[in-house]
Each structure stands twice: as structure tokens, then as C-alpha cells.
Structure prediction request, 609 residues.
Amino acid sequence: MLDETMTGDAARSGATPVFVARLLTAVVQAVALYLLTESATKPFAWPATDPYVFAPLLIVAVYVPLLLLLGLGQMRVRPLACWAAIATVVVAGLGYHAAEREQLGSMPAASVFLPPFRLWFALSAGIFIGHVLVVDSLIERRCVPPYPRHFDTAWKQGLQAVLAAVFVSVFWGVLHLGAGLFKLVDIGFFQTLIGHSWFAYPATTLALAVSLHVTDVQPSLIRGVRSVALTLFSWLLPLLAVILLGFLGSLPFISLAPLWRTHFATTLLLFAAALLVFLINSAYQDGAAEQTRSRIKRVGGTVGAVELVPLVGLAAWALGLRVRQYGWTVERILAAGSIVLAACYAIGYASATVRAPAWLKRIEFTNLVAAYAFLALILLLFSPIADPARLMVTDQMARLRSGGVAAEKFDFAALKFDGARWGAAALTELKQLKEGPDAAAISAKAAWALALTNRYQADAPPPTVTDFAERVVVLPEGRKLPAAFYDANNGPLTKGARPVCFQPAQQKCVARFINLRPGEADAILFLDRYSGRLFEQDGDGQWHQSGYLAGAFQCARVAHDLEQGEFSLEAHGWPDLVAGDQRVAVMPMATQCPANPAAPKAPAIGSKP
Prediction:
């Protein structure tokens, strides 16, 4: 149907068959997305119940039809089919690995696995770059097409994507506006209609196909928008070059410590480098003489090309400092990949300022090399070859075994939530650790990390036996807490809110044995700065919380008397109210702590003045 490449007038002459093919592709994509999302709606059905199938299918259904929508009208049918097949294998493989690397057994039963956002982001950029390289090579019938061809195709498809996103957004805005207008006159059919997924998917994909087709057969529209946008952006290049020159020029005269203390220096420096690369390319464009005639832009571009080297060097230095202190994490490994890519640009752009045949002519080759380097990084970092989670777990485990990091400072939660299946395997191994320095503490904290269901729980690591000895005062002297209290995962203190004395910079807690009923076993009154809890043994000898203190027990005098055992046991002043099977106690009105200049020194648990 589409035997020849179509651009400009040729595309317009074949607009009808191309348009029909795009509409059919959009319908097929809508059906595929609808079926996949319906399978992921409760009750779940296949393939949503099989993550190893669902994740690859979802990624293929999103990206491969987009390749076809862009390629139709640009490539012949057979090369386009071959390119779509290769892309299908690659993205499906990455989607399979995204599922295979996760701890799917620990996922909640009421959830469906979805590929992580970073994979969607990387694939979006990778598919865009790969499509530009493939299309230009096929059109020019050369492995390395002329740079102006790459420039034209990349900016055309980039602007198409932006305009298509705007069009689809406005399209849905119009639909919701219409639904609102009908709702004003009590006609809710239209609002109900657009809320159905069987309508939303085909409406969206068809709107996307129409927008891509209109912009594809109107190349002059794209070139006009591109020219205006790049001209505007290029005038920001001298401004950014001056700002960076001032920043870099000040570094030899000041300390770099404030830069490292930000903890996001690498990210900020890489962002500055990426913006500088974008603005240099906005000024250079396709290298035509009329685009590089402005002296101000040429000076700004030359200075900016040189500034890339110290920017990337500082980013690498900042990352190296963090890695030396805390080892590799997933984010730092991804940052290292970004630095490698940025280094390609920095070296290439800096060398382009030296004896180039024309102003920055060599950045054309650098851009091509960086494009292939970016694709290679995606395949490495999002596949089993160099998965950041696996590399992070290997490095962190080596630091722990070698003593490079103490057990109390080791981030066990990172293994749980960032280490994927490798992190889970490492924590299982550490949980079973019996010998070696800090084996008991490592085993307890690994068990705690495995039990976490929410990363924000990681702010409170489980107390160890040493923690109890250092942070809890047991009274009367000579008494010891029962062994159950030292259980970091299932002890009576860890089933509820963990005592605040186990947090940094907090005063000690007090555990006092008291006898509430003559002839019965002692109970334990546990006091921290904010709460007072009572623990008793049940008939099976298990300790559990049986009550809590109410009243002004945090006052200095009251807390001191409770700590020293200077209190009496008295019956409750009012009877309890029993409603159904619930007992409700009547408590006296709370009073403020009395002013008492002779009050003793604040007790271990801390107190109000």
C-alpha cells in the first residue's frame, strides 16, 4: 500500500491511504489497551494475573503502535514492519525483565504489577531516538545519514509529539466542557459516555492519530514552529554561558563544602549541563551558515562548550564523594550513567572549539555518538546486564561484610525497597546470620526490613538488646526485663508504637515492676516521654499491653514518684460504664502540672516543668 517514501507533496498525494492506515492502527491500539486494562480490573483476569506476560504486552501496546503511526508515510511497508518487529522484541524484553527483577511474591494480592516510571521515561526517550536513526538511515539508504537530515527528522517528530499531546488534551477538555453543559440541563448521558473506558481509549488514540497525520502532511507548519522556537531559545545561550562563567569562576576562591552539603549537587550540575547542550544545539541547529551568523550566539556557544567540561567534572566529583561515603545506590548508579553520557557531550563539544572546519562543526559527530551511547545505556541499565538494583546490592553487601559500614548505620530498608529480588535474597541471608561481628544486630534488623510493608516505617529501626541496655532503666535495681521484651519484631513493645527513647537524642525510658494485685505476678509499667503503658502476662505466659496511663503522669513530681515507686494503689473513684461488651472508664478532669520550686531533678523519662 505504501511502497514509496512520502514527504512533502508526495505525502499529500498519498494522504488518504496513510490516513486510513493510521486510523486502523489507532483502533487496534485502543482495543489492545482496553483489553489489558479490563483484565487488570477486579476481579483480575489473565494476562493481568501473570506479570511476566502483562508487563511486556502493556509496553508493546503503548509504544509499537506509536512507531507505526509515526512511520506510516515516512517508510516503506517492509522496512517499517521489520523495525516494528525489532522494537517489539526489545521493549517486550525490557518489560519482562522489569517484572522478573521484582519481588512479585511480596506484592499485595489486590494489586497488578506495572513497570516502574523510570522504565517508561527511558523507553520514551529511547524509542524516539531509535526511530529517528532508523527512519533517516532508511530514507537516505546510508548507515550514517547527513546531520541536517537527523536534525530535521528529530525536531519534526519532537514537535509532532508536543502538538499531538496538546491536541489530545484540548480534545478531552472540549468533551468535558460538553458534558458539563449537558449536565446543566440534567442530561447526564454524555458525561456517562466519556467516562467509559471503551469510549476513552479509541477516542484518545484516534485523536492522536489525527493530530500526527495533520502535522505530518503539513511540514511547513512544523518548520515554522521549529524556527520560531529555536530562535527564541538560542538567545538564552549567552545568558546561561555568562551565569555559568560567574559560577565556575568563583569556585577557586571559595570552599566547595556548601556545594557538597546540598546533597543534590550532582543532579543540579547535570541539569545545567543538559540545558547548556540544548541551548547550544538551538543556536547551531543544522549548521547552516545563516543559523550560525550571530556573533553573540557564537561566543556564547563556544564558551558554553568549554564550560561543559568543569560542570560534568564537578558532577562526577560530587557523585564520587557520596559513593565513597555511603556506597552505590540505584539513584547513584543511574546518575553515573548520566555522567557518562554527559562526558560524551563535554569532551566532544570542547574538542569542537579547537580548529574546527566551521563553528562547532564537530558537535554533529558528538550528537550522533551520544545518541548511540544513550541507547546502549538503556539496554545495559534496564536489562540483567547492569541492573542498578543488582549492582547496588552487591556493593552494599561488600561494604557490610568488610566492615566499611557499621550495622547500626547500614540502610537495610534500601535493600528491601530498592534492591528488587536481589535485595530480598540478601536480607534473607543476613537474617540467618549467626556468626561474626554484630551478627545478632544484623540478623534482627534484616528481619525487621523484610517485614516492612511501607518504606516510611524505615525511619524507626528495630531496637537491639544493646539498645535496651542503653536506653531503658529497669527498676527496682537488680530486676531484668523478660526475654520477650527484647524481641525486635514480635515483642510487646514493637507491636504498637515504638517507645521514643529508641529514637536519637531522646531521654531514657523507665520500666518499673509493680504488683497490682496481691498474690499475682508483677506487671511492668513502661514510661517514656509521651506515654505510659502497662504490660501483663496472660495465662499462656505471653506478655501483652493491658492498659495505659491517663492523667498528669508527665509532670516532673509525678514522673519522679512513679520512677521511684513512691505511689499507692487506690480503687477507681467511679464505677465503669459497660455498654454491650465495651467498658468505658470515667476519668477525672486533667489538671496542669503544679508549680513546685522544690520539684526534684527531671527523671529519666523527661517531663514538663
Summary: The two ends are 87 Å apart (CA to CA).
